[in-house]
Amino acid sequence: TGEYSIATQQGRIKVPCDQSNLDYLQKFSDYKLGEAELLERKGKWYLYISASKDIESVDANQMKHVVGIDRGLRQLITAYDEKGQTLFVSGQDVIKKRRHFKSLRSELQSKNTKSSKKRLKKIEKRENRWMADVNHQLSKALV
What we know:
- By secondary structure, the chain is an alpha+beta fold.
- It has two domains: 2-52, no CATH class; 69-142, no CATH class.
- The protein is 37% helix and 35% strand.
- The strands form three sheets. The chain has a three-stranded antiparallel β-sheet with strand order 5-6-7, with no helix packed on it. A two-stranded antiparallel ribbon has the order 1-2.
- A hairpin with a 3-residue loop joins strand 5 (67-71) and strand 6.
- The longest helix has 29 residues, at 114-142.
């Protein structure tokens, strides 16, 4: 195992880390590291590190399809391609579900008990997971 040195508001701390996947990490040795986010889930800590890499420009003659995409709330996606076809994906279901989560949150916040605060955190995580899944499904559908 190794250690990560992490800056906190109280100063820098050293944290032991599992380095069993170093072979996998070697694939990214030529990437430039960016921001890191430290998260705790179910008693385990995770360090998410963004990375970027310069790639060659794509020759416009090699492109088969060009699609313009606009993300929104009422229309989750509006896509327009080179053939003039337009795709609209309604966001009504998402709006309804987010409204449901909002009413749940306001109801629990008004109670202001220990159990309601605990449930609020669970609901927040559930909503975030659900929204991440919706975004993932949309991106998969477009590709």
